[in-house]
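ingest -> validate -> predict -> emit
validate: passed (alphabet ok, no gaps, 321 aa)
predict: started
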Amino acid sequence: MFMSLEQTNTSPSSKPHHILIVDDDNTIRESMVRYLENFHKTTVPISIHSVSDAPEAYELIQKNTYDLVISDINLPHEDGFKVLQAVRRASENTRIALITAYRVEDYIRLAKETGIYNIIAKTAPFNFDELSNVVNNLLHPETAFGLAPYFSESESFQEFTIENSQQIMEVFNTLRAFFEASKVKSLDTLSTALIEALTNAVYHAAKNPDGTLKYRKGQEIKSLEPHEKVSVYYGKDTERVGVCIVDQGGRITAEEILFWLDRNISGAGLLDSHGRGVYLMHTLVDRLIININPQKRTEIIVLDYFSPEYSSNKPLYINQL
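emit:
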């Protein structure tokens, strides 16, 4: 099935982005197309093809070049990983993502082996705003950074700068009080994830010239160097609370994140002294988004919904420039 869009809020001279959606669930597939046609906010027109199985997808891949392909994992005749590998062979510049109704954790190893950094979870109800964010983040990776894309435009955010190790707990206590006042679903769970994120940003981002960690976790740091300071932003709207933790290192890679997720999900990393932080955050919060600008900036974005509807299946969202 072919559907196209030239949205009224876009410039007619803009070259459209071409998207292919592959999913055998007709309701989900057609709903995704309709939402992107009618409600997706973008400055660039989009043109959408949608098909229900791998053979149809292969036929279109041979005929067309796509900017983005989103494929269900469980398809008739072939799985989505193989479809996206075929997309990569046809065009290495095409952005790719998977979507599934099953546990995302069950596919982390395959994601690591195939270099797929985004897996969308089918939730009930389906989170179409989140789909729109993923599409924008994949087509325009620079838009993934910061809290603003994940909240209404009218929201304002509070900001802290961590300049020494003592301020880690000061910021943490402020965030915990904010969560408590916001009546989050699980104050202790969210707090555990945030202290992990804060300490990792301070102690793991700064490295020596030989690549070793400059600081030991728990070490007293009286004054971080200007390029080691960590920025923290937080806020809420009617649906969620959010925290963005930014270090200026940009030294972790998407491949490393998938490596540590896989080790901890499989149990192989049970005794590791390093690498459990990202797994804990992924497990404890509704949405973990990791944005990487190599050698410049790493962002850990935590979103937690007031409603429990989006807590059961955790997607994978890694954006790397």
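DSSP finds nine helices and twelve strands in the chain.
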